[in-house]
Amino acid sequence: MPVSGGRAIRLGVLALVLLAGSVYFFAAHTRAAATKSSAAAAVPVLVGKVAKRDLPVALTSIGTVQPLSVVEVKARVDGQLQRVAFTEGQDVHAGDLLAEIDPRPFRAQFAQAAAARAKDAAQLANAKADYARFASLIDTGGIAKQTVDAAAAQVASLEAALQSDQAVIDTAKLQLEFTRLVAPIDGRVGLRLVNAGSIVHISDPTGVVTVTQMQPISVIFSLPQDELAAVLANASKSKLRVIAYTRDGTRSLAEGVLSVIDSQVDPTNGQARMRAIFANPERALWPGSLVSTRLLVRIDHAVTVVPAQAVMRGQNGEYVYVVKPDNTVELRPLAPGASVDGYTAVHSGVTAGEVVVIDGQARIAPGTRVDAKTDADAARAAPQEDGA
Asked: Does domain 43-53+302-387 have CATH number 1.10.620.20?
């Protein structure tokens, strides 16, 4: 049966309406599913806890490693350097032979002085014998008093000559000892400055070698005068610890104690110089090098701290992302204090026990749902992921 034109039009319109409804329903369902899927997707982040800790309060500076003693070993007599007895870079002890100047001329001088003394000693013995004989005859009138007096003067003269001879012997002996150049202190010798065979003089501007004390060793650093009162107050109670780090502050080198605070502040820069002493058993501190220093002034107890990597800086100051119980994050402004050993003190903004994001902040914003894991969770998951 043929369909009239009006009925055909109505059927076509109905088909279009049904088709449009289907498309709309499918699109709405797809959008809802996508929205639900998006809401369910959580951003993975690493988190840490706000805690209470004892936090050391430290003052940082840049210091220079300085040996407590550096001695340039110089010739104390003129002569030819006969031999060098050290190896460059060698550790030596006080009294160790470093070099020797030809001793033969000085041995000859010593022998000559000893012979002169022996001669005068013999003459003195004879003069004393003469005086004794003359003195025994004066009471009998067998000799003139003038002769006795002359004998007494001869004895006194030879006694003085003997003393002079002894002084010459002592000088010759000392010069002979000076031909041996010995280490004046325990330390490490540097580069050789003079070679064997060279003629050396007392007046030479440079020595034979330099000996540097390595243990203990010191670090000289400065702090602003505004910090001086706190340092003095705590230094009067106990020895203050000083930790030396690499110049960039990333690695600890040695630990020592504050030994001296300079007697005055430098008026040109308002800084007070200080010296810290380090045992330096591993010789991690090398003379002349620059180090970062941390002077531990005191320890503050039960301080609220957050992991240092949780603190972010924005246009309005520092903030952290706090993970709420519903696993969404909240941006929380805070007032941070000093950072020590990976933790930052917090004066306000968070409380102990709260959870903060320490890694992944760039992927989140306030209200973002997160999948929070600690470092320990990530470490446990790593082997499973590797084996998958």
From this structure: no
User: Residue type for 312, please?
Assistant: M
Which residues have C-beta within 8 Å of that of residue 38, sequence separation ≥ 6?
Answer: none
Task: Tell me what the pLDDT averaged over the chain comes to.
Answer: 88
DSSP state for residue 216 in the 8-state scheme = S
The per-residue pLDDT for range 309-335, each reduced to its tens digit, is 999 999 999 999 999 999 999 999 999
Spatial separation of the C-alpha atoms in residues 340 and 47, rounded to whole Å:
19
Question: Which residue is associated with the tokens 């350097």?
Answer: 81
> Distance between terminal CA atoms of the chain?
68
Alpha helix stretches (DSSP H) within 215-276: 228-235
Both tokens assigned to 62 = 């840049």
Tokens found for residue 24: 């709309």
Whether the Cβ atoms of residue 194 and residue 221 lie closer than 8 Å to each other = no
Contact 55/364 with Cβ under 8 angstroms?
A: no
The segment with the largest mean pLDDT, out of 78-87, 134-143, 231-240, is 78-87
CATH code, residues 58-68+214-301: 2.40.30.170
Q: What is the CATH number of domain 103-178?
A: 1.10.287
Reported as half-sphere exposure (CB side, CA atoms, 13 A), residue 71 has a value of 19
State the span(s) of the chain assigned CATH 1.10.287. 103-178
Q: Where in the chain is the domain with CATH 2.40.50.100?
A: 77-101+180-212
Please give the share of the chain, as a percent, with pLDDT higher than 90. Answer: 74
Residue indicated by tokens 């959008």 = 31
* Residue ranges of the chain that CATH labels 2.40.420.20: 43-53+302-387
What average pLDDT does this structure show over 109-117?
Answer: 95
Query: Kind and range of the H or E element at 257?
Result: strand 252-266
Name the H helices within the chain: 5-40, 104-137, 145-178, 228-235, 375-387
Comparing C-alpha atoms, which of 207, 197, 206 is closest to residue 83?
197
Query: Which tokens in the block code for residue 285?
Result: 């501190």
Check residue 148 and give its pLDDT: 86
Fold classified for 77-101+180-212: OB fold (Dihydrolipoamide Acetyltransferase, E2P) (2.40.50)
Q: What is the pLDDT of residues 9-63, one digit of tens each?
A: 555 555 554 555 554 555 555 454 444 444 458 999 999 999 999 988 889 999 9
